[in-house]
Amino acid sequence: MSPRTPWGTYHQIADALRSRITSGDLTPGDALPSEAALGQEFGVARTTVRRALAELKSERLIKALPGTGRVVCTPQEREAALEDGPPPAQYRRIAAALRKQITSGELAPGAGLPSEAALVRQYGVSRGTARQALSELEGTGLVVAVHGKGRFVAGDGEGSR
């Protein structure tokens, strides 16, 4: 198991990437480096990189394009997204239900979370919506992803503060 990344490191990574976007080093339409490349660059795990990228996505600085990866949004896309309001709340409903199970102890530290496919069946949503719900929980630190094994409740409760 890799050593834990200091709390808040993802904010520093988000700040560095935000600076590249605002300075013009990364321009609208430019693809961001892959999660693996960013992990190498900053010396962190991919989950830490994902948290940083989720922060930039929530600020509408970047977006994910299937088959391309994450790209820098244009100013027009940022404005249109702000006018459209927040993204659909289906994934938030799923994340809230899982968060409640975690914080109540129903899902104990180390317990496995339902798979994306199980959430698709249970909630009648797309796989992307299920993935977004799980990613949100990863971003809060309540959940950790183990490559090839699934997602699990974080063992130390650090994300529940």
Could you describe the 3D structure shown?
It contains 7 helices and 4 strands; from the N terminus they run H-H-H-E-E-H-H-H-H-E-E. It has 161 residues and is mainly alpha-helical. The strands form 2 sheets. A two-stranded antiparallel sheet has the order 1-2. Strand 3 and strand 4 form a beta hairpin. Helix 3 (46-58) packs across helix 7 and helix 5 (90-103) crosses helix 7. The model is unreliable at 157-161 (pLDDT under 50).
Give the beta-strand count.
4
What is the string of helix and strand elements? HHHEEHHHHEE
Describe the strand arrangement of the main beta sheet, using strand numbers.
Answer: 1-2
Major β-sheet annotation: 2 strands, antiparallel
Q: How does the helix and strand content classify structurally?
A: mainly alpha
Poorly predicted spans: 157-161
Residue share in β-strands: 5-15%
Number of helical elements:
7
Helix fraction by DSSP (H/I, runs of at least 4): 40-55%
Layout of secondary structure:
Blueprint: H1 9-23, H2 35-42, H3 46-58, E1 62-65, E2 69-72, H4 75-84, H5 90-103, H6 116-123, H7 127-140, E3 143-146, E4 150-153
Antiparallel strand pairs: 1-2, 3-4
